[in-house]
Structures are given as structure tokens and as C-alpha cells.
Amino acid sequence: MDGPDQLRNLQQLKKLKFDDEKYRTATSMDQVDTERRVEKCYDRFEQLRYLDNRKALPTIHRLQHIKFLENMLRSLSTNYECLDSSRPWLIYWILNAAHLLNSRFPDDLLSRVVKFLVKCRSKTGGFGGGPGQVPHLATTYGSVNALCIIGTPEAYDAIDKPTLLNFLYRVRDDKIGAFRMDTDGEIDVRGAYCAVSVAKLVNISAEEEAKLFNGTVDWIASCQTYEGGMGGVPDKEAHGGYTFCGIAALALLGSTGKCNLDALLRWTVNKQMKFEGGFQGRTNKLVDGCYSFWCGAIVPIVQAIISKKEPYLSRILTKPVFDVRALQEYIFICCQRPSGGLIDKPDTPPDLYHTCYTLSGVSVAQHSEVDADPFVIGDILNNELLPTHPLYNTPPKCVWQAFMHFQNYDDAGECSSNGDQTNQDNGDKGGLNGHQ
């Protein structure tokens, strides 16, 4: 393979554009229009390269993105009024994106964030989308992730482990082992993943884990479709986000044997678009920058699991089986706003969700080759992002520090729900060595 400073031949790529076989539909016209916008970005970039003696390479607008994120964090109430019930999500997206860009906000600002999230915490357990709002698994996941990224004693103290576990039990469906998003909410595989993720981060005991997630593995495995991916619930269409949630939850529980990993991997790599270079979330849908993570992270997770189960494949699967160069080209050339923020596809406005998950996907692409230097297109000093944990999408160090904090907390007898010492082996049960 050519080095990371060698880009794909963008002119030859045009041969891979969608062919509607002279049968136009609404879906095919949307695909053609999207490819036209992507092609415009690639053509413009090529012209700029010729102006610079063909030496120009894609670059990430790091400082602009950091400024965008900090401005959003300081003014969430005014900039995102329509997402008032999602503010813990917004905070998590901002903090994780900033970490990937190797930036940390001032301590006083992070302390204000912690105090706000405390106000979102319900007395009965879990976090709501804002002060006084009903606790919800999605905003609980976002809050716990954000607090673990901040990682200060004040942030850890904001996570009340006993009431958090009580909340997880309240949203659990005992009949099938699945989880509702809130006590009266919908059941889908997102709930299972959010519950598993936060339970692992606060380091619940092996006994508590077996009780809380009894039946969960079988239910998640039943969500796998004939295509190989997973739907939100059994018998629904395979979807990149749900598939990530399903396989990540199974990996964290150390129980991936009940799903077809070969079919799952095959479905995922086929979601990468030949011309655009990014991923689509479902079959016959449009490219979207956020699936850079939702689909891109599935690949190293499944490859690691297969390598562990089939050691003879480990040497083959050290390299990612999707095109990490193409993914970075799509994000760097087509999904950045020069003024800051990232997007799903050309000609759309930037937002925090896509800023977080497009950067997360680039990080996975750059760091997914085992025991090798990062594969970074362009200037590695400028374009390399920090690694993210593919199972949690938080900094790997923050995952381990949270795990150790709550283990020590339990060992001191201050927060254990059952009075027993947490089993240290619990950290190595999941895929990819659990928390490493």
C-alpha cells in the first residue's frame, strides 16, 4: 500500500459512482445528488493541489473546531434550546471531541459542567436531560461518559453508584433481559448498550453483573438480521448504530459467541461507500459522517474478537479490513466547516453530534492497526487525533481511571451495593481486554 501521504486517484474514483440502470427513484436521485456534492468537494480539492504544485494534502481545522466546541459548551442554553432535554448528550459530544483534538477546557468551566450534571441527576437514580427532568438511559450514558472524561474527584462524586444501579434495575425488562430507555419508554438495543456501558464504567461486581444482565446476551443476539447487522429490536432492519450498540454490549459482557461474527463483519465493511469513502448506516442509504464511528468502530471490535477465537487469523487481522485512507479523505475533504464544526455530508450545517462521531471515526481509522504507527493522511503532526476506546467512545485512560476509582471506592466499603469486594477480573471479561 502507498504511504499515507498518497491519496486515492480521485478521477478514477468517478468510475465507482452510482449507476441507476436508467431506473430513477427518489432514493436513487438522492444518491446521485449526494455524489454530486461529494464530487464537487473532491474536484475543488484537486484544483487546490495543482495550485500548490500538487503538494497540498488534506488538513484538519483543529483550532477552529476547538473554538467551536468551547463556544458551544459555554452557551448551550442559548445555542441549543430545541435540545433542552439532551444537554448531557451535548456535553459528552463536546468533551469527547475536544479530547480527540488533544484539548482540555479550563478547570473552572469543567467544574461548572459537573455542577450542572449534578442538577440533572435524579434522586431515584440516573440522569435526566436537564434539571428536574425524568431520568433516561441515553442521558445517563452521556452524563456518566462526560463525568468520566472530566475525571476529577468532583466529577466522580457526581456519579451516585447505588442509585444508578437502582435506576438500571427499574428500566430492565425482566421477561426478556432488555432495557427500556426510561421507565415507560421504548425497548431497543440502545438501552442494553447504555446500561452495560455505564455499569462497566462504575465497575459493578461480577455477581451484580450476572444478575442485572441475565438474559441480555440472548436478547441482543436475537436482534441480528439475515444481512448480518443488527436491528433495534428483533426482526427489524440492520442499522449501523444499533449494530455497534449490540456488538459493543456483547463484547463488554464477554459473550459474543451467540452472534454470527463473520456475517456481521461482512455487512459492516460493505457499508463503506465506494465513491464517497464514508459509511452509510443502512443498505441503500446515503453516506453520513457519523457512521464513520458507528460502523468504523465495529470493525476493530469484531476483528479483535475473531483473532482471539481463531488465533491462526490474528496475523491477517492486525490490519483493519476497511479503507482507512478513504474514510479520512471523506471526513477531511467533505465534512469540515473551515469556521469550525463537522457535518454528515457536504452542504449541511455543523452540529455537535456529527463533530463528535466523525472525529471519533477518524480516530478509529487512524489507530485501528495492531502494533503499528497510526495511519494518518497528510501532516501527522497536525492531523493525528488521540485514540478513542472503540467500545465506550471515551479516552482509554479515562475508562481505566474510572474503573479503578470505583473499584477502590467499593474496596473501602463506601459505595458497594452488596458489601463484597469488586472482582478485579471483571475488568478483563469484555472484548478488547475489557477496559484497556
Overall description:
A hairpin with a 4-residue loop joins strand 1 and strand 2 (178-179). The chain has helices at 10-13, 26-51, 62-74, 76-79, 87-100, 107-120, 137-150, 153-157, 161-171, 189-201, 206-212, 216-221, 240-252, 261-269, 291-294, 298-309, 324-334, 352-367, 380-383, 396-411; strands at 172-173, 178-179. A two-stranded antiparallel ribbon has the order 1-2. It contains 20 helices and 2 strands. It is 50% helix and 1% strand. The protein is mainly alpha-helical and 436 residues long.
Number of helices: 20
Question: Strand sequence of the main sheet, in spatial order?
Answer: 1-2
Give the C-alpha Rg. 21 Å
Q: What portion of residues belong to β-strands?
A: under 5%
- Give the uncertain stretches in residue-range form: 415-436
Q: H/E element string? A: HHHHHHHHHEEHHHHHHHHHHH
For the record, give the distance between the C-alpha atoms at the N and C termini, rounded to a whole number.
29 Å
Task: Report the principal-axis shape.
Answer: globular
Query: In which range does the helix fraction lie?
Result: 40-55%
Largest sheet: 2 strands, antiparallel
Q: What is the count of β-strands?
A: 2
Structural class: mainly alpha
Short descriptors:
single chain; 436 residues; mainly alpha; 20 helices; globular
